[in-house]
């Protein structure tokens, strides 16, 4: 480690008292005047460099410069009539002046509000003074890589979608702007943290003809974020498709991190065709995101997922002679999670008949380590998550974070009171992070990282026997929002939701929630029809297998329905 000399005549504010204070924090004693003078000089040198660098010009990478648009970048807050379910955060209508392709031509895309859209505020679902010094939501100076790619593909950025407070809740009642309501049943959760994304697509699922004006404005596709299930859970609860891609397939550049090891951005849509198109537009190395590695495809090597889907749909209707049948593994442990409802279990198990009707082989598979997924996800990330999500710590690798976004830290009483009232998970994150670091140090996190490789290998071994694994996405269908004033209710309702999803965030396997049925629940004296999601998992970087399996399931379900229509 080199040291920079102090400029001649430089008067530092750092004194020997600072050195003794720092040593005292670890109960150390500075033994000699020489030691004091040496450490003082080193500390003053570092302080001088930092203070000088504070005034240096910042830099926006050319790949993150906002894309030139046909019209000026303007945004507006939708009215209550335009946004009755609180799914939109801010609205806009951005079209590239010179798109590079037409893969998303004319399609409206909403972006989760932890992803930077140039010229629009970034809220992270929280209060303005949690993310800026002036009490105003900071306006982004960059387009996240996925935003650029949507515009370059001819898509329209229609606005940002509400996300949960700090993008950290599997339910949809924690955002600073209030609860996001499920389109299938007002007053019920949309799931989180990509709650607005799920709701905007859920409106289309409930009302494909867009005849219900009470839903307000909608969108065609959305891009969510997923650290433990935050794309797949809203997809499941809203009856839509949501993919957590392989770790490193879609760049996270320009999105606010929760923890780099589990950060994913993923497409959400109402049908497989849109899923394939949006995935194709978003995937591929961007040269900026250190989450991407040697296995990440260059842009020119991204598979044509839409063509793969076309071929899969043809093959399932007219199988090629001698072709190997799709092998579907029913993951035993995925049906043993705590709190799994009978309706969800039966709906996902019924999918076996659809796969069989499509000519697939259905095989029971066991991965006993699957039960350890939630614990490994927790131990490997929890003690450090506060540093990234709350304190804005940079990674140890070269990375590009959003310069307009300044997280407020450490917490004060006002922050504590607001978060305890809206999303107690964030204060719990701060408390537990400090406690776990002091109680256990880094050793258990390191052990969890090693065990994650074991879990990854266990899934990989199972996926040598089959092409995909299936299981429920969530233990239950959507539930009513907890009472907003009841902190304990918010904590309890979130327990167990990520049991089948979070493990794949740490192993990196792609996983998609596919609508597979409905459950009927009675609430407030009336019956509600609520969607059930089936999770399909494949080998890393084999999203093609997931699309093929989903296409087979859809075809098989239509065949089965023709014989015995579903109620």
From TrEMBL:
A Pfam family that the UniProt record links to this protein: Amidase
Domain Amidase: 98-547
UniProt protein name: Amidase domain-containing protein
GO molecular function, one term: catalytic activity
Organism lineage: Eukaryota, Fungi, Dikarya, Ascomycota, Pezizomycotina
């Amino acid at each position: 480690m080199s040291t920079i000399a102090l400029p001649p005549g430089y008067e530092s504010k750092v004194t020997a008292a600072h050195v003794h204070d720092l040593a005292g924090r670890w109960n150390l004693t500075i033994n000699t005047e020489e030691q004091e003078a040496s450490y003082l000089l080193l500390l003053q040198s570092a302080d001088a460099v930092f203070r000088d660098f504070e005034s240096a010009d910042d830099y926006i990478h050319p790949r993150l410069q906002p894309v030139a648009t046909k019209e000026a970048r303007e945004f507006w807050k939708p009215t209550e009539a335009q946004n009755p379910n609180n799914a939109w955060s801010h609205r806009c209508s951005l079209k590239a002046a010179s798109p590079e392709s037409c893969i998303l031509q004319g399609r409206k895309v909403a972006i989760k509000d932890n992803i930077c859209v140039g010229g629009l505020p970034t809220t992270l679902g929280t209060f303005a003074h949690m993310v800026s010094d002036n009490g105003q939501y900071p306006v982004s100076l960059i387009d996240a890589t996925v935003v650029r790619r949507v515009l370059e593909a001819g898509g329209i950025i229609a606005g940002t979608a509400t996300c949960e407070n700090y993008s950290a809740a599997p339910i949809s009642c924690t955002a600073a702007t209030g609860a996001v309501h499920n389109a299938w049943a007002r007053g019920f959760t949309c799931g989180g943290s990509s709650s607005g994304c799920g709701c905007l697509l859920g409106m289309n699922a409930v009302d494909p003809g867009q005849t219900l004006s009470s839903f307000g404005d909608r969108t065609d596709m959305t891009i969510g974020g997923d650290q433990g299930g935050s794309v797949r859970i809203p997809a499941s609860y809203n009856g839509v498709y949501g993919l957590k891609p392989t770790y490193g397939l879609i760049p996270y550049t320009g999105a606010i991190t929760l923890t780099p090891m589990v950060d994913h951005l993923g497409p959400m849509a109402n049908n497989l065709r849109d899923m394939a198109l949006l995935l194709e537009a978003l995937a591929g190395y961007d040269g900026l995101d250190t989450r991407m590695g040697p296995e990440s495809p260059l842009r020119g090597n991204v598979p044509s997922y839409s063509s793969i889907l076309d071929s899969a749909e043809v093959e399932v209707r007219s199988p090629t002679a001698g072709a190997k049948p799709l092998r579907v593994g029913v993951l035993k442990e995925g049906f043993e999670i705590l709190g799994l409802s009978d309706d969800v279990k039966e709906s996902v198990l019924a999918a076996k008949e659809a796969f069989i009707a499509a000519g697939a082989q259905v095989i029971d598979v066991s991965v006993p380590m699957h039960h350890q997924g939630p614990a490994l996800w927790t131990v490997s990330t929890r003690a450090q998550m506060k540093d990234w999500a709350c304190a804005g710590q940079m990674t140890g690798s070269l990375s590009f974070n959003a310069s307009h976004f300044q997280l407020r830290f450490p917490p004060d009483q006002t922050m504590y009171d607001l978060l305890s009232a809206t999303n107690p998970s964030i204060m719990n994150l701060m408390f537990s992070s400090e406690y776990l670091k002091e109680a256990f140090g880094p050793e258990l996190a390191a052990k969890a990282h090693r065990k994650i490789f074991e879990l990854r290998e266990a899934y990989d071994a199972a996926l040598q026997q089959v092409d995909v694994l299936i299981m429920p996405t969530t233990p239950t269908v959507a539930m009513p929002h907890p009472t907003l004033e009841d902190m304990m209710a918010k904590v309890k309702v979130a327990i167990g939701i990520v049991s089948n999803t979070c493990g794949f965030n740490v192993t990196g396997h792609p996983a998609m929630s596919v609508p597979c049925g409905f459950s009927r629940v009675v609430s407030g004296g009336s019956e509600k029809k609520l969607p059930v999601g089936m999770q399909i998992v494949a080998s890393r970087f084999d999203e093609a297998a997931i699309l093929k399996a989903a296409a087979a399931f859809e075809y098989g379900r239509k065949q089965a329905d023709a014989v015995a229509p579903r109620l």
